[in-house]
Amino acid sequence: MKILQDILYGVSIEAIVGVTTIPVSGVTFDSRIVQSDFVYVAQKGVVSDGHDFISQAILKGAKAIICENIPEEYEKGIVYVKVENSSKTLGLIASNFYDNPSKKLTLIGITGTNGKTTIASLLYTLFTSEGYDCGLLSTVKIVYGSKHFENLHTTPDAVAINKHLVAMVQSGFTHCFMEVSSHGIAQNRIEGLYFSGGVFSNLTHDHLDYHGDFKHYRDTKKRFFDQLPKTAFALTNLDDKNGTFMLQNTEAKKYSYATHRQADFKGKILECQFSGMLLKIQMQEVWTSLIGAFNAQNVLAVFAVASLLELPNLSILKRISELKSVDGRFQTLQAPNDVTVVIDYAHTPDALENVLQTIETIRTRNETLITVVGCGGNRDQEKRPMMAVAAARYSDKVIFTSDNPRDEDPGRIISEMMKGVPAEHYKKALKVTLREEAIAMAGQLVKRGDIVLIAGKGHETYQEIKGERFPFSDLEMAKQIFLNTD
């Protein structure tokens, strides 16, 4: 139990009805899970307004209501706290309720369009290999110790984050590596968290359906660095044109990494093939099984963070040489007929182009490159023709198919992608609506030594159609078709 006035520490309060010395047993923004003596935070969401559920929360046992608009009629014995922004307040009081666990471990946040999952996951693996007790909050999964949770959001809500962090602290964990999404920043899910460091990977066209335009998307990412404390470090990718911009106003200690420009942490690709890359990092050579220029930057970011957290350089390089690719990120299968299958989460134009460019640098041009790709429904429509342009430019054959169509007609999504295919590449494009049939067609078209890229879903084990999630895995489908497994 906590006292209400204690968990309101740091909150900008506009008005209070009632006394704040009451005990509270929990914090939530979901009226359906309110229990006795809870604090209910009424947030204005995209779909619904939590203020509409205040009465329901009180009926279920809430004793305190945090809101932006106090109801005209008060319930007897209920404390009402009026604030300017309920979402920001939720983060603060959630952190306070759980005794600010983010201050009791080394929390590193990674943001950017691409690379967040890879950098966070590789850092988790590297530090765990070095004997540290670490947690991971990523798109793919949430892991600490023997606990594994499926993650449905790139950044969980503020209450969930603090619940995971306090569990880590109670178990003696020292580090946590966390993806920080633009949605999470915009919706104040990281409010109240104390980050020891922040990393910027890159910024490309994505999520404009939510943010409206690229400037707002970019500025949202920058907010993360603006909020870092003086004691933290801010690490940015100078190969990205927005790298310098991200750190303009941060009070954190500034550091940079790059493969094409001078930076505090410098890297270079010496050799690249489907089995891995030879890199030079800070004048030391290291072999990694990860592949591609984008992964060279990811590995360099991992090296930089580990170095800033005072791991010896030789230990870092040794661990980098042992790292494996993250599930669904340039994950390769080698078929018996010398066919190479690449499975990648690339779902933005830039990510897809990066993967295709990597394949371009490795291939001999004596083989055929077949790309299977789609775009998600109810998401940024502007990127659909851009994705098709990239696929058509680098591939010998392209099969446009569905991704997660959600509530949209997959045929319509494919037609919008086709609008981006230049006339000279039109003959190489095929349309197959069902994703499993598209992958099967790639299996029929392929010949010895060819390359197949299956892009867009990566690690996902489902397809989202009309509000339902159906089991589906690009990896398992590829194994069935190219490796002849059941």
Radius of gyration: 24 Å
Number of strands: 26
Beta-strand share of residues? 15-25%
- Counting copies of identical and different chains, the oligomeric state is single chain
- Assign an overall shape: globular
Gap between N and C termini, in Å? 53 Å
The total count of helices amounts to: 16
Category from helices, strands and their pairing: alpha/beta
- The neighbouring-strand order within the major sheet is 11-10-9-12-8-13-14-15-16-17-18
**Fraction of residues in H or I helices:** 25-40%
Characterize the main sheet: 11 strands, mixed
Short summary of the structure?
This protein is an alpha/beta fold and 486 residues long. The protein has 16 helices and 26 strands. The strands form 5 sheets. Strands 11-10-9-12-8-13-14-15-16-17-18 form an 11-stranded mixed beta sheet, with helices on both faces. It has a 6-stranded mixed beta sheet with strand order 19-20-24-21-22-23, sandwiched between helices. A 5-stranded mixed beta sheet has the order 2-7-6-5-4.
Verbal overview:
Helices cover 32% and strands 25% of the residues. It is globular. The strands form five sheets. Strands 11-10-9-12-8-13-14-15-16-17-18 form an eleven-stranded mixed sheet, with helices on both faces. The protein has a six-stranded mixed sheet with strand order 19-20-24-21-22-23, sandwiched between helices. Strands 2-7-6-5-4 form a five-stranded mixed sheet. It has 486 residues and is an alpha/beta fold. Helix 13 (383-394) packs across helix 14. Strand 19 (331-334) and strand 20 form a beta hairpin. The chain has 16 helices and 26 strands.
